Amino acid sequence: MARSRPAPRGRAAAGRARTTRGLAGWLFVLPALVFYAVFVLRPIVLTAQYSLYEWDGIGPSSWVGLANYGRVFTDPALFDSLVNAVKLIVFFSAIPVLLGLAVAAMIRRIAASRLALAARTVIFLPQVIPLVAAGIAWSWLLSSTGVVNQFLRLLGLGAVTRAWLGDFATALPAVGLIGAWVLLGLCTLLLLAGMSKIDPALYEAARLDGAGAWREFVSITVPSLRQEIAVCVTVTVIAALASFDIIYISTQGGPGNATMVPGLQIYYLAFSERAVGMASALAMVLMVLVIACALPIQWFTRDGNR
């Protein structure tokens, strides 16, 4: 009986060791948690608090409850900015992902040539260029006397030319194409990285069965890139909803409010109109919209891996 007494002591020692390791782990994580709490969670809580008040950012504030949120969905200028952000998803997300799939598939087929390296470099170049510089360059290209209109005139299409960023009908699509150009390189490289992990034996077996390039792409490449496509869609959708810099540089939300997006509207409300409460309410709605768009994509990917 005397020999059975050390067992509880051993369990207690093991428990203390696990506790010590757990505390050590939390100590390593603590700086990141503090940084996240101060610079992410605290601003979110303060924004939610400010959204319930009418405040100019300096003087006293007055409680308005959910009135600011009601105005977001009833004021045409504010609600249209949300609609424009959703429309930009087509340009910022659908075009780069679909075109990136096609470009990545072509680059994979010529991977052994120098042309593939040059293509990857050229396509990824927009990711290296600052977005402010990209916005300025595209503003020159799409102006009434820009390279795009000059090229159209050379082709005899002078009747089609216009100030693409200054026309109510073409301003938003023009901004969307700039965003698609910027994000195409990122999507292409992510998809190329995913293609490099596909077993070449799958393609060899498909060729032996008589499958062509299109059947290989549809039946092998695309299903094998589910995770990479989900990452591309998530990143580009968030970029569309949270767009600011390209639009601020190229159109500043104009003409009229044709290219106004929530990020730019929040900036104007907070710093030009001194409507901090209204800006905070729009920011909270934008955050919920981003989460509502991103979570289903993650759930779809998770379910596909089960």
From TrEMBL:
Protein's name in the database: Sugar ABC transporter permease
GO aspect biological process, one term: transmembrane transport
Organism (species): Sphaerisporangium rufum
Gene Ontology cellular-component terms listed: plasma membrane
Membrane topology of the entry: Multi-pass membrane protein
Signal peptide: none
Top-level lineage group: Bacteria
Pfam families in the cross-refs: BPD_transp_1
Annotated ranges, domain ABC transmembrane type-1: 82-297
Keywords: Cell membrane, Membrane, Transmembrane, Transmembrane helix, Transport
Keyword Transcription among record annotations: no
Taxonomy of the source species: Bacteria, Bacillati, Actinomycetota, Actinomycetes, Streptosporangiales
Alphabetized InterPro entries for the sequence: ABC_transporter_permease, MetI-like, MetI-like_sf
PANTHER family: ABC TRANSPORTER PERMEASE PROTEIN, INNER MEMBRANE ABC TRANSPORTER PERMEASE PROTEIN YCJO
